[in-house]
Amino acid sequence: MKKFRLFTPGPCAVPEEVLVEMARPFHHHRTDWFKGYMKQAAEKLQQVLCTKNDIIIITGSGTAAAEAAIVGCNPPGSKLLTVENGKFGERWGEIAQQFGMNVIRHPVEWGTAPTAELVADFLKKDPAITGVMVVHSETSTATACDLKAIAQVVNQHGKLLLADCITSAGALPLKTDDWHVDIAITGAQKSLMLPPGLGFLAVSERAWKVIESNKNQHAYYLNLNKARKMAKENDTPFTPAHLLIRGLVKALDIILEEGMEHIWKRVAAMAAATRSAGEAIGLKVFSKSPSDSVTALCPPAGIAVKDIRNELEKRYGIESAGGQDQLKGKIFRFGHMGYVDDMDTLLAVGALEQVLYKLGHKFNLGAGVTAAQKVFAERL
Question: Do 352 and 368 contact (CB within 8 A), yes or no?
Answer without folding.
Answer: yes
